[in-house]
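Hi P.,

Sorry for the delay on this. The queue was packed all week, but I finally got your sequence through. Input first:
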Amino acid sequence: MRTLVPFGNSMKHIDLFTPIELIGTDRGREIDFHGRTPAVDEVWELLDLVPDPEIPVVSVVDLGIVRDVRHAPEQQPEWQVDITPTYSGCPATDFIASEIERALQRAGIAAKIKTVLAPAWSSTWISAKGRKAMLDSNIVPPVHDLNSLTCPHCGSGDVHMKNQFGSTACKALYTCHACAEPFDYFKTI
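Then the structure:
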């Protein structure tokens, strides 16, 4: 689309671009279930492509937010996805639900997204793949003993907490004394 805009003492044609979604994802767009009913495992694979909005290197499946995927042809919609937020007040919960719904809709699946608060989410639900992705992005995944916390940049154990809240409420901000680099630690819950 082109439009005419003022340019100095004259007018100039410029191309207008369609707005893009800065947070949304294109991951999974090539998956298409239109015209067929996928297996439950295929739907899990699709959901594994939906990133967590606060830690986009980790999927909502690897973070343990997606708890269950069910297909019930006798119900409308036929599919239900249960999600559990990392904590009950997580501000990203509605956005996560909408991203899951959008990924499913793009693939041809109508689904009900149900938030389940019990049992409460636990950091033990983060998969090994999710923990590795965090660490590869300099976010230290949850540990059971904070004395074993090490810097993701240099590996030093000489670290201290700067603030109990990092870039999000589920992370704490640490600094390494050895390399002076800051890093987020995903809190154990």
